[in-house]
Amino acid sequence: MATLSEAQLKIMPEMSEVLHTRYRFLQMIEMLGPIGRRGLAEQLSVAEREARRETDLLREQGLIIASRSGMRISELGLEVLEVLKPLFYEWSGISTLEKQLTRTLGIQNVIIVDGNIDEVPSIKYLLGLEAAKQLEIVANISKNVAVTGGSTLAAIADSLTPSENLTNLNFIAARGGMGVDMRLQANTIAATFASNTDNTYRTLYLPEHLSETAYQAIIQEPVVKEMMEIYDCTDVVIHGIGSAIEMAVRRESSEEEKQSLLEKGAVSEAFGYYFDEQGNAVQRIRTVGIQIEQVNRCKSIIAVAGGKNKAKAILSYFKNGAKQSVLITDSAAAKEMLRLLQEEQF
């Protein structure tokens, strides 16, 4: 027996496309508002004429409010968006895809947002919103929350606000500095997590690339020993997953180092470890920070990564990823992962 939504889709298949379009418009206005029509069109990669038509309809229905500063979602719009979400996920196939990937990856859960972060960078804010919700769910069992760096983690920090569920937490930088953009370093992001939720934080101001001599000296320092003890007591880790060569470039690795990664078949990177397609760690950088063994002992792990181009890296990492992980990704990465997995079967 078909469900009501399945029956509706059978008799009016065009409903799926219309729902998808208007849901995306409303969702983007909620996320980026107040926003102008031209900016919205650019974010959604549509003609300004289409943006005008759809936003006029949403405004007439009382779902958005237009002012000089731009368009923003109304209270009614928020309610409609929340009610539509399960229907949209069912019709778009996202719910089925979430179940398939959760089962195949063998992890706790996969949460998918609609879109492709490679084409629409603002999708990272949707990933951030979902990660923030997930943190609220696991926060009651948490005290120490370790966070890595990167633009997606920064988007999570921006999505957080004070909450009864997010109290008595200590946000910890999972590693020292990396790259030249201070805003995207773990230290800055840990501080932002804490500031936006009225909690405490701990930083780790150490260079990421260390010689063997420097590394052995630094790990004897009392402050470093204290941080390693905190990592041992970490309850939750929130992290990204990088493509191996992309991360090597961000670390300003030498051409010899990048060539070595290619020769070893490195595909993904997380926590300073580089993994091949089978999930084997083929190389690691000498750095002070949370170690993969400490990550795997945590009660909850939230991994956030999206974009079709990241699909191979995500699969690589989760070949041996911790089973207590929740992956938050976008539909482009999810569909590509499923395609790659199907290829492996033949």
The biggest sheet amounts to:
7 strands, parallel
Beta-strand residue percentage = 15-25%
CATH class of the largest domain: Alpha Beta
Provide the residue-averaged pLDDT.
88
How many domains? The number is 2
Distance between the termini: 34 Å
Alpha plus pi helix count: 16
Task: Based on the coordinates given, report the CATH architecture of the largest domain.
Answer: 3-Layer(aba) Sandwich
The CATH topology of the largest domain is given as Rossmann fold
Q: Can you write the helix and strand succession as a string?
A: HHHHEEHHEHEHEHEHHEEHHEEEHEHEH
What characteristic shape results from the CA principal axes? globular
Q: Determine Rg (CA atoms, Å).
A: 21 Å
As residue ranges, the low-confidence spans are: none
- SS-based structural class? alpha/beta
Strand order of the largest sheet: 3-13-12-7-4-5-6
The helical percent reads 40-55%
- Strand tally is 13
